Amino acid sequence: MTPDSLFQLSGPLAMLGWLALLAAPLAPRLAQVVAAQVVPLVLAVAYAALILMHWAGAEGGFGSLSDVASLFANPWLLLAGWLHYLAFDLFVGAWEVRTARAEGIPHWQVVPCLALTFLFGPAGFFVFSALRLSAARTKG
């Protein structure tokens, strides 16, 4: 397998988790199992394997932006970084859905947050946090 072929597999796998989150009102437990456990764990195992196989002797590191650029010049480690994003963004999206459900926030209000979390990670988390604050003030 090449980094490109593994990259091509990772997108549809992550999308499975995001689709489960969009359908969460229909099957909340299944959505959480898929999006908060199964898919992130598969991505985490792939990530860990890539790090174990390709970290030793890699140029670069995390000491400066230039070091990070050198580290990610290695396609295997760049792929590991991508899997890291996919796993954590999906995990955060699953947390958003679970938290919204527990706090009585309608799912339709969470969907834009999920889209932002999918595309821009921390921006989606920020918007979801603002939604939670707004919902808490409305109730209180």
Describe what you observe in this structure.
With 140 residues, this protein is mainly α. It has one domain (3-139). Helix content is 82%, strand content 0%. Helix 1 runs antiparallel to helix 2, helix 1 (3-22) runs parallel beside helix 4 (75-103) and helix 5 runs antiparallel to helix 6. The chain is elongated. The chain starts with a helix and ends with a helix.
Write the layout of secondary structure elements.
Elements lengths: L2 H20 L5 H27 L10 H7 L3 H29 L3 H14 L1 H18 L1
Helix pairs in contact: 1-2, 1-4, 2-4, 4-5, 4-6, 5-6
Number of strands: 0
**Tally of discrete structural domains:** 1
The biggest beta sheet reads: none
Q: What is the chain-wise order of helices and strands? A: HHHHHH
Binned strand content: under 5%
SS field, number of helical segments: 6
Which descriptor suits the 3D outline?
A: elongated
Cα-to-Cα separation, first versus last residue:
54 Å
The helix-and-strand class reads: mainly alpha
The helix content, as a percent range, equals over 70%
Oligomer: single chain
Give unreliable regions as ranges: none
Calculate the mean pLDDT score and round it.
Answer: 96
Radius of gyration: 17 Å
Which structural traits does this protein have?
0% strand; 140 residues; mainly alpha
